[in-house]
Structures are given as structure tokens and as C-alpha cells.
Amino acid sequence: MTNVHTVSNLNQQLQHLVAQACSYPAKSLMRRQKLSEIVRVVMKSGKLWKENTAYYNDALQQTWLYFCRNPEQYNPESCSVITWLDNCLKWRLQDFRSREAQIQAKTVFISSLEIENTTEAIESLPAAADIPPILEETYQWAFTDPDNDLASTHVKGRPEVTCQILILRRLPPETPWKNIAKEFNLPPSTAPNFYKRECLPRLRNFALRQGYHEIWD
Predict the structure, then answer these.
(1) DSSP class of 48
(2) In CA terms, which of 45, 66, 106, 134 is 20 to 30 Å from 12?
């Protein structure tokens, strides 16, 4: 009970600080001071998402930069401040993971070429393809959740395990289901069954609206 009460107090404090920061002009000293206070409170709480990756600090820095430029994007009716920041951070971590996967794939491909004139061969290779547009569009849709549908649809009795979280986790490069089960302390079949029942239909509807067909299986 004490822990729940503490989390609730933290969120109320942060929501109040965000509202105060947004009440000041964009480049004012008072706004900067409030934003700095929010960063200090969040970091001191230790509640922000953490993972042991080489690019975590870069992603965290980008998250804070985005937040300080766009505090008005936070919607207190959608989720807590910490959850919103977690989603921002995970979005940026996903970006880093995607870039790293592309670099690794390119490196493996190039290193596997058994050609004498390596320089000439590499120069003649076509440019690596960017992330497919549907993937970027899907990331953006899932992350921003314009209708608040993904964030409000969750596993029964587990409001933190939402369609939004699972879709972002399962977009390439996919987080294994066993890792998701461990992270949220779920039975092995709960997340994949929920994903198949609730997330996949939403993904397919989004793809169809964007003019893509049967892309998410």
C-alpha cells in the first residue's frame, strides 16, 4: 500500500510540475527551471525505464531533449508522466536497435563477399535500403496513439500491459515473447494470445488505412 501511495504521489507531483512548466512561455527562465526540476525528480525516483545497452544514455538524452522541447505533448488523461517518458525512451531505444541491426546486417553481408578487388566491389554495391515506410509509419502510429486506443486496451487486470507496449515491443527487431513474459511477470501464453486477439487486428486495420495489404501476420 505504501509503495502504491508513493507512486501516486510521485505522479501527482510530476503532473503538477509539467502543468506549471507548460504555463510559462517557451523560452522563459521559469519554464526551464520547472523542466530541470522534473528531470531531477524523475531521475531521483529511479522509476524510469532502464536497460543495459551501449546506446541507452544516448537514447535517454534524446528523450529529455524531446520532453524539454515538447512538454505540452504529455496528456495526463492518457497515462502517468513516468509511463509517457518510458514510452518516449523506448521509442528512441527502438530506433537505435533498428539502426544497429541494419549496420550489423550490412557488415555481415560485406564481410561475406569473397572478391579480390574488395574496394571496387563495395563501391558497386547498391545503397542500403532505409527502414520500410510502413515500419516507420507504424512506429509513429503506435507511439503517438492518436485515438488513445492502444494505451487503453490492456491485458485483463494488467493495465500496464497495453496494446501500445506490446506492438512497440514486437515491431522489428522483435523482443522475444519469453523476455516480455519475464519483464511483466506473465504466464508464457498471456501476451502472445492477447497480441493475436487485440493487437494484430489493430495493426492490420492501420496497414489497410495506409494502403498496405496483409503486411502484419
Answers:
(1) S
(2) 66
Burial of 94 (0-12, 13-18, 19+ CB in 10 A): buried
Per-residue model confidence as pLDDT tens digits over 151-175: 899 999 988 899 988 988 887 767 8
Buried b (16+ CB within 10 A) or exposed e, 159-188: eebbbbbbbbbbbeeebebeebbeebebee
CA angle, residues 175, 143, 147, in degrees to nearest 5: 130
Residue 143's SS3 state is: helix
CB of 70 closer than 8 Å to CB of 33: no
**In this structure, which long-range contacts are made by residues 136-142, counting pairs with CB atoms below 8 Å and at least 24 apart in sequence?**
137/210, 138/167, 138/171, 138/203, 138/206, 138/207, 139/91, 139/94, 139/168, 139/171, 141/206, 142/167, 142/168, 142/171
What is the residue whose three cell numbers read 488513445? 148
Q: How many CA atoms lie within 13 A of 83 on its CB side?
A: 19
For the chain, what percentages of helix, strand and coil (3-state, to nearest 5) are there?
65, 5, 30
Residue 9 DSSP symbol: H
Radius of gyration of the chain (CA): 20
**Helical spans, DSSP H, in 46-80:** 56-69
> How many angstroms separate the CA atoms of 166 and 193, rounded?
11
In the chain, DSSP assigns E strands to: 154-155, 158-162
